[in-house]
Amino acid sequence: MGVTIHDVARAAGVSVASASRALSGRRKVTPEVAERVKQAAAELGYRPNAVAKALRDQTTGTIGMIVPGIGNPFFTTIVEAVEHQLQETGRDLLLCASLYTPEIEARRLNTLLARRVDGLIISPCDFEASAPAVLNAARQVPLVQVDRYIEGGGADWVGVDDDSALAQAVDHVVAGGARSVVFVSSRLMNSSARLRLAGFQLATARAGIAARSPLLGEFTLAWGFEAGRSLLADGPLPDAVVCGNDEIAVGLLRALRLGGVRVPEEVSVVGFDDVGHAAMCDPPLTTVRQPVEEMAAEAVRLLGQVRVGEPRAAQRIAIAPRLVVRETSRLATGGTMTGDGQEGRETT
């Protein structure tokens, strides 16, 4: 049998109630009693009963998080950022992946609810099909959407300002001399894909340049490579390609290189996210950096504001991104740039 609170109290020479108060911190005891109890607990190897504490406090100290897939470097990055924010408040993260499937996503939500998580952070995999399960979960525990959101909102959301992101990308390639641009991204199954296509169309219309029909597939390396081969086969090449994420951009760069195309001399390429390998690919990728740490901090902050059953308008927070210029895009004539000594040429 494991060490109990009774054992700790006996070793410290105090009552069980005093030992419990000293270890929980909910009610004050004298510094002398607190020290004796903590020392006794450490010497005996006492571990509090997490289940009993959860039943007593009506909280588990855990937050559930669901992302479409952890193979995508962006989602890995946002998960790490959320976990860092939760650690600062003494909470733990339970992570699930929906595998880009609404039915699996709904099962994952039910699993986390059964674990009695204190709240949920989710990046819904489908703009429409994810809505019923997400709204059902939001009626039971505090819930915040991050990066992606469901049709009609229905819950707080934190993400990037896609219009600003695509405006920065398009304005940059236009300043570098591009007069024809194509957008390569994902099919419009989620809000991110929809917002980025809309932002690209708005930016090119404002700039008055020719935007070819978008190439829409998946947010993957394989799709970027396939799209690059399609551009090579169809010809002539556009002056610039703006991609819906870095995975697509890296795949496309490989296809262009194998096709003998010089980047950025013949074609400029711009990604989206600024995940780790963006700076390490060859050539280093110009991309729009998502403010991941800020997004995670806002998501955790909003989670603490949600009260289930209380009437409250859902909040939408779009955080400004910034363009990181490296070596896959042409700079404007006479432009200047600064470097950080790590990522090659970089400017904002």
UniProtKB/TrEMBL annotation:
Q: Which UniProt keywords apply?
A: DNA-binding, Transcription, Transcription regulation
Name under which the protein is recorded: LacI family DNA-binding transcriptional regulator
- Please state every residue range assigned to the domain named HTH lacI-type: 3-57
Lineage, top-rank taxon, reads: Bacteria
Pfam families xrefs: LacI, Peripla_BP_3
Check the record and name the CDD domains matching this protein.
HTH_LacI, PBP1_LacI_sugar_binding-like
- State the organism named in the record: Streptosporangium amethystogenes subsp. fukuiense
SMART domains from the entry?
HTH_LACI
Q: Which Gene3D superfamilies match?
A: 3.40.50.2300, lambda repressor-like DNA-binding domains
Transcription as a keyword?
yes
The family database entries (SUPFAM superfamilies) matched by this protein are listed as: lambda repressor-like DNA-binding domains, Periplasmic binding protein-like I
Q: Name one GO molecular function term.
A: DNA binding
